[in-house]
Design brief:
13% strand; kinase; alpha/beta; six-stranded mixed β-sheet; 11 helices; polyphosphate kinase activity; transferase; 269 residues; Rossmann fold; ADP/GDP-polyphosphate phosphotransferase; 50% helix
Length: 269
């Protein structure tokens, strides 16, 4: 619950009289309140750790690329928002490209993404990426079968070149169940403040669920490599998934490949 200030939560938690009053008057449930406090504290600690890592990235001129992919309504935007919330905005960029222009359609597919790669000391986060051609484009027939197959062949080679050149590449895929997706899409439709999130393609996410699944499975199988694995995170529980995302980012950046993953995270390599 981002609307709560961590210091205010801690003050309430430390005051038994206040907690007793709130519970007696059914203003809150202690367990749910404690869960919120624990989540906000762990999130804060992870944000501090990531910020310290950003200092190191800036000082040593490292380059970091983070790719967020996932099903529609899987929570990419919210997770990215928490990741960047306390980072130095001058050294982190979020890239969410619109559909290609006619000029870009005549270029090598990766070309328009290359110009957004990080300079020394920068982190770049792609909110969807060149992997549109791996899933979204073939699902809706925005590319030919030959274009899709060529992309699937070139993507691992392209990423190997990035990594060999020193870029730290991290690929996160947020998954949700079909039932959870339906609920979130319905919530977006009913909430005026969230309705802008619904695109034309989102409206077909449910009816094309199985087609999406086939391409996603192929995505993991073909483009998940030892050098550049996919971390698939079950995002039905947003809070747990966000914490898991932070832990993955931190561990990969520091090179801690042996860190145990959460039970709801799958590594595809």
């Amino acid at each position: 619950m981002a609307e709560y200030d961590l210091k205010e939560l801690q003050k309430i938690r430390q005051n038994k009289d206040v907690l007793d009053y709130l519970e007696q008057h059914k203003i809150l449930e202690i367990k749910k309140f404690n869960d919120v406090c624990d989540y906000e504290q762990e999130l804060y600690d992870l944000q501090v750790t990531l910020l310290k890592l950003q200092y190191d990235i800036i000082e040593k001129g490292k380059r970091v690329v983070i790719i967020f992919e996932g099903r529609d309504a899987a929570g990419k935007g919210g997770t990215i928002g928490r990741v960047t919330e306390h980072l130095n905005p001058k050294k982190v960029r979020v890239v969410a490209l619109p559909k290609p222009t006619p000029e870009e359609n005549g270029q090598w597919y990766f070309q328009r993404y290359i110009k957004h790669l990080p300079n020394a000391g920068e982190m770049v986060i792609f909110d969807r990426s060149y992997y549109n051609r791996a899933v979204v484009e073939p699902v809706f027939e925005f590319c030919t079968k030959e274009q899709h197959e060529l992309f699937m062949k070139q993507a691992p080679e392209f990423e190997k070149q990035l990594i060999d050149d020193g870029i730290i590449l991290i690929k996160l895929f947020l998954s949700i169940s079909k039932e959870e997706q339906a609920e979130r899409l319905k919530e977006r439709q009913e909430d005026f403040l969230k309705r802008w999130k619904i695109g034309v393609l989102d409206q077909q996410a449910q009816e094309k669920w199985d087609i999406y699944t086939g391409y996603i499975e192929n995505l993991f199988k073909t483009t998940g490599t030892k050098k550049s694995p996919w971390f698939e995170i079950d995002n039905d529980n947003k809070k747990k998934a966000r914490l898991a995302s932070f832990r993955i980012l931190i561990n990969v950046i520091v090179g801690n490949e042996q860190e145990k993953l959460d039970s709801f995270v799958k590594k595809h390599d």
